[in-house]
UniProtKB/TrEMBL annotation:
GO biological process, one term: tetrahydrofolate biosynthetic process
Gene Ontology molecular function terms on file: dihydropteroate synthase activity; metal ion binding
Enzyme class (EC, first level): transferase
Domain (Pterin-binding) ranges: 134-386
GO cellular component: cytosol
Protein keywords: Folate biosynthesis, Magnesium, Metal-binding, Transferase
Essential cofactor(s): Mg(2+)
EC annotation from Swiss-Prot or TrEMBL: 2.5.1.15
PROSITE patterns given in the database record: DHPS_2, PTERIN_BINDING
Catalytic activity line of the entry: (7,8-dihydropterin-6-yl)methyl diphosphate + 4-aminobenzoate = 7,8-dihydropteroate + diphosphate
Biochemical pathway: Cofactor biosynthesis; tetrahydrofolate biosynthesis; 7,8-dihydrofolate from 2-amino-4-hydroxy-6-hydroxymethyl-7,8-dihydropteridine diphosphate and 4-aminobenzoate: step 1/2
Protein name: dihydropteroate synthase
C-alpha cells in the first residue's frame, strides 16, 4: 500500500506555505492559481471579438453575444474566464491598441483587478472604521412608525438601548428619525431634528462609538455631525438634497450611498429592472465618479438598497451577486434585517417572526465578506458574525 494520497482542495492558495514554498513566490502562484471572471458591459462588437481572440491566445476564453461575429448587433457584453495571469496578458495586449476603446478597457480591467481596497475610514472625530471583519450597525429608530415596532425607541430609553447594543457587540449606532419604509410619509425638518439631535447628543456624551445619522436632509446631517455623528447614511445617495454634498465636503464624515428606485412613498409600486445588477453598477459608478472628483472616495460606503424599489427577485439577485459590487473597492453595507423579502419567502410571516431567516442572511453576508450589516437584533447577529469571521477571514 502506497503512502501517497491525492485529494481535491477547496482553497489551494491557503496551502502554499504548508507545501513549503518560498513566501516570495506566493504572489506568483496567486496570479496563476486564482480563476476569475469579469463582466465588461456595453462593448463595441469589434472590440469584443478582439478581446475574445486575445483571451483565447492567452489560453483562456471570453463569452460574447452570438451575433457579435456577424455584426448583426452593435454592442455586446463580454464575460471573461481565466486566471489573473491570463488577464494580465490581456491588459498588456489591449493597452497597446488605441482604437475601439480597447486601451480604455485595459485600464478599467487593471483598476478592477489591482486597485487597492479601502480597508479603513477615518472619521472626523478621530474615531475609525476598520474593515478586518464584518461590522455590525445597530438600528435605533426614534420614530413612531418604523416597520419593526421593537426597533422604535423612546427618547428617555436611548441610552439604555444603546448600552445594551454595545454590550452585545455593536460597532456602529445608526439613528433614524424619519421612517423610510415603503409607503411612508416625509416628516418636517423641524420634527426630524427634534427626534434625532437629542438622541445623538445623549449617546455621544455617554459612549465613544461611531454614530450614523440616517437622513437625506442636509441640515439634519449638518446638525447631527455637530452633535457628534460620524457617518451620514443617505438613502438617496446625495440626490434628494442638493446641499448634502456641501455638508459632506465641509465636515468629511463617512457617507453611505444607498440605491433606491423612486422615493419611499412610491418605491414599491411596480419597480422594474431589465438587469438589476447592471443598473446598480452603473448607478454606483456615476455616484462614485462624482465624489471622486471632489476627493471624497476614501469616505464612501455603498449600499445596494435591499427592499428599496426592488422586487423579490431583485433582492435575491443582489445578494447572490453581492461580490460584483466589490469592483469599486469601497466598503459594502447590506441592510436586510427582518425585511419583507424575507417574509415573502416564508409564507408572509410578520417582521416579529423573521429573526432566524435574518440570521441566515447575516451568515451568508459574513461569508461573502460584506463589510457592514445593518440590523435590529445585535446579540444574535453578533454571535453569527463573530463565529463565521473566524472561519472565513
Amino acid at each position: 500500500m502506497t503512502d501517497i494520497l491525492v485529494t481535491e482542495v477547496s482553497d489551494p492558495l491557503s496551502l502554499l506555505l504548508k507545501v513549503g514554498v518560498d513566501p516570495a513566490s506566493v504572489p506568483i502562484f496567486e496570479r496563476k492559481g486564482k480563476f476569475i471572471s469579469l463582466m465588461i458591459y456595453n462593448v463595441d462588437v469589434i472590440a469584443a471579438n478582439v478581446i475574445k481572440q486575445e483571451m483565447l491566445a492567452a489560453g483562456a476564453d471570453a463569452a460574447v453575444n452570438k451575433h457579435a461575429i456577424t455584426h448583426k448587433i452593435q454592442k455586446t457584453s463580454v464575460l471573461t474566464f481565466g486566471t489573473i495571469a491570463q488577464h494580465i496578458k490581456l491588459i498588456e495586449k489591449l493597452s497597446k491598441m488605441h482604437y475601439w476603446k480597447l486601451d480604455q478597457i485595459a485600464d478599467m480591467i487593471q483598476k478592477c483587478l489591482f486597485k487597492d481596497q479601502v480597508r479603513s475610514i477615518d472619521l472626523p472625530s478621530g474615531r475609525k472604521l476598520i474593515f478586518d471583519r464584518t461590522l455590525i450597525m445597530g438600528i435605533v429608530n426614534v420614530t413612531p412608525d418604523s416597520f419593526y415596532s421593537k426597533s422604535r425607541v423612546e427618547k428617555d430609553k436611548v441610552i439604555d438601548y444603546t448600552a445594551s447594543m454595545i454590550k452585545n457587540g455593536v460597532d456602529i449606532i445608526d439613528i433614524g428619525a424619519e421612517s423610510t419604509r415603503p409607503g411612508s410619509e416625509r416628516v418636517s425638518l423641524e420634527e426630524e431634528l427634534n427626534r434625532a439631535i437629542p438622541a445623538i447628543e445623549a449617546i455621544r456624551k455617554t459612549f465613544d462609538i461611531p454614530i450614523s445619522i440616517d437622513t437625506y436632509k442636509s441640515e439634519v446631517a449638518k446638525q447631527a455631525i455637530m452633535a457628534g455623528a460620524d457617518i451620514v447614511n443617505d438613502v438617496s445617495a446625495l440626490r434628494f438634497d442638493e446641499k448634502m454634498i456641501d455638508v459632506i465636503s465641509e465636515y468629511k464624515p463617512a457617507v453611505v450611498l444607498m440605491h433606491m428606485k423612486g422615493e419611499p412613498k412610491t418605491m414599491q409600486q411596480n419597480p422594474y429592472y431589465e438587469d438589476v445588477i447592471e443598473e446598480l453598477l452603473y448607478f454606483f459608478n456615476e455616484r462614485l465618479s462624482m465624489l471622486g472628483k471632489i476627493g471624497l472616495m476614501d469616505k464612501v460606503i455603498i449600499d445596494p438598497g435591499i427592499g428599496f424599489g426592488k422586487r423579490l427577485s431583485d433582492n435575491l439577485q443582489i445578494l447572490k451577486r453581492i461580490d460584483e459590487f466589490k469592483t469599486f473597492k469601497v466598503p459594502i453595507l447590506v441592510g436586510h434585517s427582518r425585511k419583507s423579502f424575507i417574509g415573502a419567502l416564508l409564507n408572509n410571516v410578520p417582521p416579529e417572526e423573521r429573526l432566524i431567516a435574518t440570521l441566515a442572511v447575516t451568515a451568508y453576508c459574513t461569508m461573502k465578506k460584506v463589510d457592514i450589516i445593518r440590523i435590529h437584533d445585535v446579540a444574535e447577529n453578533s454571535q453569527v458574525v463573530r463565529m463565521i469571521s473566524h472561519l472565513v477571514r
